[in-house]
Design brief:
Layout (H helix, E strand, L loop, with lengths): L7 H33 L3 H10 L3 E9 L7 E11 L5 E2 L3 E7 L2 E2 L20 E5 L7 E2 L4 E6 L9 E8 L4 E9 L2
Antiparallel strand pairs: 1-2, 2-8, 3-7, 4-5, 4-9, 6-8, 9-10
Length: about 180
């Protein structure tokens, strides 16, 4: 009996298990790949994209000269941050960790609200000021200055600032800057 003369209804039961097996094998391969990615971490290209997303708060400058009185080098340690993102941030929900040459500084900044920080327990910080710190939110394009204690930063230091969301419990932005 030739294949052409066979009744098509009789071919269906023979093909159906083969197609079902192929679909199950394909599904198993896709699920295995997803489990592998979760266990081993994200691919490097996705990790780089995630890192780019974390750099919307940018360290724009570090000032080491006393601009107010003597205009002399006093390692003033004023850090200018610029919000390069696209959405407003709730300053009360933000806190900052500061690192010098990979070591976390003894600097406690539990809010980026410049008005509220005056009444909180903070260390390693003279003041927090600028348009980004003046209200409840920090809008895109606004700057914020973290005035660390004089002598905290010196030329050649690598400065890193991590901005955390207290409600999410995670880093929402991180940037590194070489102090000149």
């Amino acid at each position: 009996m030739s294949v052409c003369s066979m009744d098509p209804r009789r071919l269906s039961p023979a093909i159906s298990p083969v197609i079902a097996t192929m679909l199950l094998v394909g599904l198993a391969v896709v699920l295995s790949a997803l489990v592998y990615l979760m266990v081993s971490g994200l691919p490097a290209s996705l990790q780089l994209d995630a890192l780019k997303d974390l750099q919307f708060i940018e360290i724009t400058a570090v000032y080491s000269v006393d601009d107010e009185y003597t205009h002399a080098m006093n390692y003033d340690s004023r850090v200018l941050l610029t919000h390069k993102g696209t959405r407003e941030l709730d300053n009360d929900d933000l806190r900052a960790l500061i690192f010098r040459n990979g070591v976390q500084l003894n600097c406690r900044i539990d809010t980026l609200n410049g008005v509220k920080i005056q009444s909180t327990s903070h260390t390693g910080l003279s003041r927090l000021y600028g348009p980004g710190s003046q209200g409840k939110t920090w809008a895109p394009g606004e700057t914020l200055t973290i005035d660390l204690n004089n002598g905290t930063l010196h030329p050649g230091d690598e400065l890193r600032i991590d901005i955390f969301s207290k409600s999410a419990g995670t880093v929402i932005s991180s940037d590194t800057y070489l102090v000149a």
